[in-house]
Amino acid sequence: MRVPLRWLKEYVDITWPIEKLAERLTLAGLEVAAIERIGEEWDPAKIRVGQVVDVSPHPNADRLTLVTVDYGAAEPMTVVTGAPNLQIGDRGQKVAFALAGARLIDGHAEGKKWVELRPSRIRGVLSAGMVCSEKELGLSDYHDEVIILPDDAPMGVPLRDYLGDVVLDLDLTPNLTHCFSIVGVAREVAALTGAKARIPVPKAKATGPAIGGQIKVSIADPNLCARYSAALVRDVKVGPSPLWMQHRLRLAGLRPLNNVVDITNYCMLEWGQPLHAFDYDRIRGQTIVVRRARPGERITTLDGQEHVLDPEMLLITDGEGPVAVAGVMGGLESEVTEKTTNVLIEAANFNNISVRRTSQLLKIPSEAAMRFGKGVDPELTVIALARAAELMRLLCDGEVADGFADAYPVRSSVKRISITAREVRRILGIELSVTRIAELLSALEYQCDVIGDEVHVTLPTYRLDVSIPADLIEDIARLIGYDNIPMTLMSDVLPPQRDNPRLELEERIRDILVGVGLDEVITYSLTNLRSVALLSPGGEEGFPQEDYIRIANPLTPEREYMRRTLMNSLLETLRHNLRYTDRIAVFEIGRVYLPVPGEPLPQEPRRLGIAMTGPRMPRSWMESAPSDVDFYDLKGVVETLLARLGLVGAYEPVGHPTLQPGRTAKLSVGGVNIGVLGEVHPVVRSQFDLPERTVCLAEFDLEALEAQVPAVRYYQTLSRYPAVVEDLAIVVDESIPAAKVREVIVEAGGELLRGVSLFDLYRGDSIPAGKKSLTFSLTYQSLEHTLTDRQVQAIRERIIKRLAKELGAKLRA
Length: 813
Description:
Elements: E1 2-4, H1 5-8, H2 18-27, E2 31-38, E3 47-58, E4 61-70, E5 77-81, E6 94-99, E7 103-105, E8 114-116, E9 120-122, E10 125-127, E11 129-131, E12 148-149, H3 159-163, E13 165-171, H4 182-193, E14 206-210, E15 216-219, E16 225-234, H5 243-252, H6 259-271, E17 275-279, E18 287-292, E19 298-300, E20 306-308, E21 314-317, E22 322-325, E23 329-330, E24 343-350, H7 352-362, H8 367-374, H9 380-395, E25 399-402, E26 405-407, E27 416-420, H10 421-428, H11 434-442, E28 447-451, E29 454-458, H12 469-480, H13 501-515, E30 519-520, E31 526-527, H14 529-533, E32 561-562, H15 567-577, E33 584-591, E34 606-613, H16 631-644, E35 649-653, E36 659-669, E37 672-680, H17 682-687, E38 695-701, H18 702-708, E39 724-733, H19 738-749, E40 753-762, E41 771-780, H20 789-807, E42 810-811
Helix pairs in contact: 5-6, 6-9, 7-8, 19-20
């Protein structure tokens, strides 16, 4: 169930942040599977609501026009368009207007290809903006016409503020039938947040003659149809529904067709009652009979398919034959078309098992069948009819007949259940008074009466899922929040716990990387050779097919081979997510699959991959343009990981086809090669459609890394005596790594040298060519006594001699 937030707010005030609301709904059983932000990518400064000032002919093209648009700036702008719904002489229409620099979807390309709008000359006329279609804004695939906004759209405001929305994608369980509607979700939100739901009872303004005598309704099988209601609207004008309704339907996952059909779908989503519109003039005999199908009876449904029916299926028939399969799909013969003038609206209540069986046998899934299959409140029929009839009066210029045709042979009875505080405590382990129980249930529109130590609850008709006290207690738990229910330990002996060092170490690595700001991702283990080839400049450097394991029955060519590296998956992850954020820092722990000659199964070593790109720090008023992450940010993450694991790494320059020369290093620990890290080669970055900025990438052999982690870590006693800190500046050959210099210093310093850190690198006029100056900060400290100047000087001289002997280093003058 997709719930647009603006639609939901019509029925309940929502003051909570959307993330907090989603979490509360999820903890109450209405799992929010995703939060979709519509219009988030629309630049508020470059995509606005505009108003057409004038439409004039293009001087050099018959099929193009010049549209002058006022968008709130000092002067209107004239742009070129070929949209057929803007004609010469038009003015006053509200449109979606994009300025140069806006990111839009290419309306002429297949799929969703984002492009930046740039000024261009079209048949000799400069066009620095665009009136947009639905496809260019990502609202649908329709590109033939530009969007015409409602007349009340505020000119000049960002389109994001007017047409943008947030959609909650709810993954509802079958028992939550009352939540398969906007109104149902609004009731839940009101109960969970403490807000008050505003749910008016719809009424239709009926100006036509009474419906009696114009349509006759009867139910031949009350076991399969508890209620059948109908409304009649005459003199309707079939055409497109207004933009606001089309937009909401699309956000909810339905495709707009015309105003009559769209209204029935809109009311179904709003109230949870499926509706169907018949062309009244094609209902033979102005009679509706709900009955079982006869053996061998056939019907052609709206999808153009002919179906053979069996006697277990329920039909809607007129005076001569079937016009719809009950609860599943309407018939083609009574379809509403552009020529329809009179509409009969159906709202019924069908047996859920019958609808499920029919839908499965005929292989016709539909939104209506899904709702009927879970159960619908029979009291909803006239409510939804009133709402639909009134909308047809307003949006289709129809005349609503007075009253409804309503056959209701099996009326729903009022349900009452009693519960006690003792039963609630037994099941939930929470002590609640009967007054508190009544208060919680009343928030869900239960009618509660406290009598002694019992709460007598009268159920709303729409709560079809409640039949026993445990169902009410479940609602109490949902309102309290499952996360607030205390845990109770089981009174039994636990099985012996056994350590899993491998898994524990993997979790430690995850915790460390998350702690330094990275997010974990899980990518597909399947890839394709084209993606792998992009890891080399030019995309052609040898990746022979025989080095990869091919799946015998791949579902898609994009997932055909078992991966040998995490690198291409991580770069694809960056590409996909950079559409939504500027900074990404992620890691993945996953297996790669290496074929073994002569063996049926491959090796499956684990790899650790890291990818980073974007600003080093979040945007701040202190720094208007923060610098991007580079090799040293990635190296800092790796060094922190090693330090937390009790390891020290060595880094050496190395070549790698994916990484940029001079900015790539091999990582070794204890003399064992662990992997590689560096900045992605600019050509490779371009091949993956990544922006022109630094992208850092690393991949390590997790087994090799874990083998170096010590089983036991020893901690040193903190010294009570003061430390001596001094600087040492030396000049060495350009080719000598700083890590090698540090290694010599540590070996020469002995146990009294407690810290060595490089803080300055200098090349300049005072330094000979081919040389560099390195300045280290040295910390001396003893665990037993305060060091004297003589002791420190002796250590310093020993370090200088060792540096001169092994590296040819000299003190900097």
